[in-house]
Design a protein that fits this description.
Helices cover 80% and strands 0% of the residues. It has 10 helices and no strands. Helix 2 packs across helix 5, helix 4 packs across helix 5 and helix 6 packs antiparallel against helix 7. The longest helix has 37 residues. The protein starts with a helix and ends with a helix.
């Protein structure tokens, strides 16, 4: 089997155009996952009655659902019920005016929230209890202790797992093609719709994702090594 490099280059160039779309599908879920997931992890860590049990049950169930299945379910709910919601809330925006990109962002965000919750909870458990006691002994309030003592140690402790989670989010973003969201994958396959050179198109998409993941992993590993030195100095 021979590879048509002209078609490969064409698909590669077209896929690069849609990198910003993919970055949006990655950065927004990661940001929401980091913020909300850390908050939920803190609730479980503190063993807040009822709330911690609800969160634990939801995370356990949701993590068992494939991203593409959750994406299709959210898309079907949107298509089936938006008309009813529009009438009830008197929305003027029609379903055709809504960018389905936000459905994909929501689906990916939910997955990241659950993943981040597990990572952050495990990292919270790894922090020495003496850190909490030391902060309280000098009169620090709960929010001061969390923001000034715990979080600076939490991120470095969670970074190895966060790296895997971030790389997984980048790769999982390609499933949005299932509901017609335009991303790198769709961009690469557009030229193949006329040339039928789909192997070259998929290969081009794989190379783009690979380059992005290599760059992200390199940056995160460098920061991870830096944070280890910083933690040793503190110790």
């Amino acid at each position: 089997m021979e590879i048509d490099f002209a078609c490969f280059i064409d698909s590669f160039k077209n896929g690069i155009i849609y990198i910003p779309n993919t970055l949006g599908l990655v950065l927004i879920p990661l940001a929401s996952g980091l913020i909300i997931g850390t908050f939920l992890a803190y609730i479980r860590f503190k063993k807040v009655k009822i709330a911690s049990q609800i969160i634990a049950g939801f995370v356990t169930i949701y993590r068992g659902v494939p991203v593409v299945v959750a994406l299709l379910i959210y898309n079907m709910i949107f298509l089936l019920f938006y008309g009813s919601w529009q009438k009830f809330f008197h929305w003027k925006t029609s379903i055709q005016d809504i960018n389905i990109l936000w459905i994909a962002v929501f689906a990916l965000s939910m997955g990241q929230i659950c993943g981040m919750e597990e990572v952050m909870r495990t990292s919270l458990l790894s922090i020495d209890k003496g850190q909490w006691e030391a902060g309280k002994s000098i009169g620090m309030k709960e929010h001061q202790l969390v923001f000034h003592v715990i979080i600076p140690q939490l991120i470095p402790a969670a970074l190895p797992h966060l790296t895997n989670l971030i790389l997984g989010c980048i790769k999982n973003s390609s499933v949005v093609v299932a509901i017609g969201v335009v991303d790198i994958m769709v961009g690469c396959t557009k030229p193949a719709e006329t040339t039928y050179m789909f192997f070259e198109a998929y290969l081009a998409a794989a190379v783009i994702y690979w380059v992005i993941n290599i760059f992200v992993e390199f940056a995160l590993r460098r920061y991870e090594n830096y944070s280890k030195k910083f933690r040793k100095e503190i110790a």
